[in-house]
Specification:
With 415 residues, this protein is α+β, with helices and mostly antiparallel strands. The protein has twelve helices and seven strands. The chain has a seven-stranded antiparallel β-sheet with strand order 1-2-3-5-6-7-4, with helices on both faces. Helix 2 packs antiparallel against helix 3 and helix 4 crosses helix 8. Bound molecules: tetradecanoyl-COA. The site of tetradecanoyl-COA has 21 residues, from helix 4, helix 11, strand 4 and strand 7. It is a peripheral membrane protein. One of its GO terms (cellular component) is mitochondrial inner membrane.
């Protein structure tokens, strides 16, 4: 029976749900088969009765599906909305990004311009410093002996004045003010009328702070000084004019020379000056901060008698022979005192020759006196004698002669 069904009916049956299919199948069987019609009807009825709940569940399913579809549609709408928002934000971000990169580009250009300008200014400042350095060298290199002396004193005596400690210029500005200094130097009568030591000293105290602005003065007494050292210090210091810090107007026969651990302050940029102004450079005799450990000394200068006296207390770091001072340390002190003395007398000098006779060893920790006297000056040569004695003068420890030769600043730079 089933095999004889027409194709159209078979196709329709294939599209119907399985439950309906069985009912239809039977009704078709009844129609074509003409067999047991009543039971067929009853079956049909049963089938139709069964369809109701099925339809109900299908409707429930349908409703659920519809709800899900609605939910999905709502979700889709929400998603679409957020996509729109995202796109808007993306557009805004893109605009902001392009604005930011634009201003970054602008900033970079400004920065580059600023950098180039600063570079130019630095170059021009360097050139100014260089020009001034050259001007100093040119002045020093003049044939005038007074000019040489003057410039030597300008360099060296700056540190022996009290006034230099009051100057607080930074290195760069001080170098830039060299021009002003040069003007002062050129108008000094001493350049043309002969060497006038007092005036030169006075000139040097006007110099801007090439030197350290407020350095520690190592020549002042400290807790390590022995009673003998203090006694001698008081003796000479009481003969110094304490009223004024200006060397030119000091009336006492003695001047206590301040002493710092840094002679020249570092100046940036200048080829010539920076060659001799090294930031880490420290005076050999003043580079130990621990009081009493190495060289404790103070130099007094007597302008009228053209002599120097140095009170020296040798610390435990200066040992040579057990319990006694190293010969090199003694030589160092002799060179220092005679060198300072020669500088006062002749301006910028270097030691050319030093002859030393060690007569009696110096006990470590003891106080001795170094007396530096002028032998004679002969052209560029300054001959100095030096004697090292015990504090009471009863024992001669060392005797020396020293030769100092005057040099120009450019010689110093070329050394
Ligand atoms: C107040 C301020 C305080 C400062 C505080 C600092 C405290 C520190 C102080 C510390 C101070 C420490 C100080 C230091 O530690 S200074 C450091 C140690 N010294 C040196 O490094 C000096 C190196 N030498 C030179 O630069 C040159 O050789 C000099 C400049 C010396 C001479 O070369 P230059 O080419 O310029 O000149 P020249 O050769 O035509 O000679 C000129 C004249 O000199 C005579 N001659 C030369 N050499 C000798 C010799 N060995 N014995 C005897 N005679 C000598 C020569 O015959 C001639 O005489 P004459 O033919 O004209 O008659």
């Amino acid at each position: 029976m089933t095999a004889s069904m027409p194709h159209a009916a078979g196709a329709a049956a294939a599209e119907d749900p399985p439950i309906l299919q069985s009912g239809l199948h039977r009704s078709r069987t009844v129609t074509h088969g003409h067999a047991e019609p009543e039971s067929e009807v009853a079956t049909m009825k049963k089938t139709v009765m069964g369809i109701g709940p099925m339809l109900q569940s299908l409707n429930v399913m349908n409703e659920e599906l519809r709800k899900r579809k609605d939910n999905l549609l709502r979700d889709k709408l929400v998603l679409e909305e957020s996509i729109v928002t995202c796109n808007k934000e993306k557009d805004e971000d893109t605009t902001k990004l392009s604005e930011a990169s634009e201003s970054l580009k602008k900033l970079k250009t400004e920065h580059d311009d600023g950098k180039a300008n600063a570079q130019k200014e630095i170059e021009s400042l360097k050139q100014q410093i260089l020009d001034r350095d050259k001007a100093i060298c040119a002045l020093v290199d003049t044939t005038k002996a007074e000019a040489r002396k003057l410039c030597g004193l300008v360099i060296w005596y700056r540190i022996i004045t009290h006034k230099c400690r009051k100057t607080r210029d930074c290195s760069l500005s001080s170098v830039l003010r060299v021009e002003q200094t040069l003007r002062i130097l050129k108008t000094r009568p001493s350049l043309h009328t002969g060497f006038q030591a007092d005036k030169l000293i006075h000139t040097t105290v006007r110099l801007p702070g090439i030197f350290s602005p407020r350095p520690r003065d190592f020549s002042l007494p400290n807790s390590s000084w022995s009673p003998k050292m203090m006694e001698l210090y008081d003796h000479y210091n009481s003969q110094c004019d304490l009223e004024t810090e200006d060397i030119e107007s000091q009336k006492g026969p003695w001047i206590r020379l301040p002493s710092y651990n840094r002679i020249l302050k570092y100046a940036k940029g200048g080829v010539y000056l920076s060659k001799i102004m090294q930031s880490k450079a420290r005076l050999f005799t003043r580079n130990v901060y621990q009081v009493g450990a190495s060289f404790e000394y103070v130099i007094f200068l007597n302008k009228e008698e053209k002599k120097c006296v140095c009170l020296f207390q040798a610390g435990h770091l200066l040992e040579g022979p057990p319990g006694h001072v190293h010969g090199g340390a003694i030589a160092t002190m002799i060179d220092t005192v005679t060198g300072t003395h020669a500088t006062f007398l002749s301006g910028l000098v270097v030691t050319a020759n030093l002859n030393i006779n060690y007569r009696n060893a110096i006990p470590l920790g003891s106080t001795v006196i170094l007396e530096s006297t002028l032998d004679h000056i002969e052209g560029r040569k300054t001959h100095i004698n030096c004697k090292v004695t015990s504090a009471d003068g009863s024992k001669v420890h060392t005797e020396a002669t020293a030769l100092f030769v005057s040099i120009s600043v450019s010689h110093l730079m070329g050394m």
